[in-house]
Amino acid sequence: MNPDECPMCDAGVIARYRVNATGESIQVCDECDSVWEETDELPGPATATVEQFLTVRGLPLLWSQLSALA
Ligand SMILES: [Zn+2]
User: Fold this and answer.
1) Fewer beta carbons below 10 Å: N end or C end of the chain?
2) pTM of the predicted protein model
3) Ligand 1 centroid vs 19 CA: distance in angstroms?
4) 29 domain residue, yes or no
């Protein structure tokens, strides 16, 4: 299995993003918006979705809150 393939939806690709407001690095599926902590081992269950992740931190539900990391 491709390690970048999403174990939640089996369709998306997981990429790293930085949360602009907090400086946190996270891993996000581009298909189902699942979120993993930077240190989470994949494949494994996602800890949240992008929406949940931003809501918990009181941030707007916008992709512009995240910056793609190379
Ligand atoms: Zn996915």
Assistant:
1) C
2) 0.89
3) 19
4) yes
